[in-house]
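So, can you check this one?
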Amino acid sequence: MNLASFPISSADLDRLHTSLGRLAAADGTLDVAYRTVDSPLGPLLLAATKKGIVRVAFEVEGFDAVLETIAAKVSPRVLEAPARLDMAAAELDEYFSGHRRAFDLPLDFALSTGFRREVHSFLPRITYGNTRSYKEVAALVGKPTAIRAVGTACATNPLPVIVPCHRVLRSDGTLGGYLGGLEAKSILLDLEKGEPHGTAVR
């Protein structure tokens, strides 16, 4: 079939995706909804189960690969359904514009396990504009010698930005690693300090 013979506008395509998402949700065949949003960090992929936000991904991770992982580890019933993530998109927009300091979204830690889940569950306690070292986080979660494991947990956080692993630094104050790249981490920290930071990550 030659798709060029059946032109469809982006608006019509968006409406189609919305309709399919509603139908899938209504008949119980949609387990994971996803959408993309623009941000100062570049495009972000958001995914949610009925329980809550399960994944926030950076473009550098490869959205197709992220969706494949979700299908394998959470549910194969994954569909683009933007309306299901309107609240998350709105809260992220408020955060990036400096009008929100904490997220009020249900979270699903299905992609976190073991000690990593302990760390991911703790991270929202590090409040806006504040930072902790990997060593401090290890002590605060009751595993003071697990500094390297805390670093690994932060580097594999499935919910960056919303679960603020960007607020965890090395003991000397340097950035350490970040799933979205060090420029993205720096942008987030500067945002929370009220400092402008150039242009968006490309």
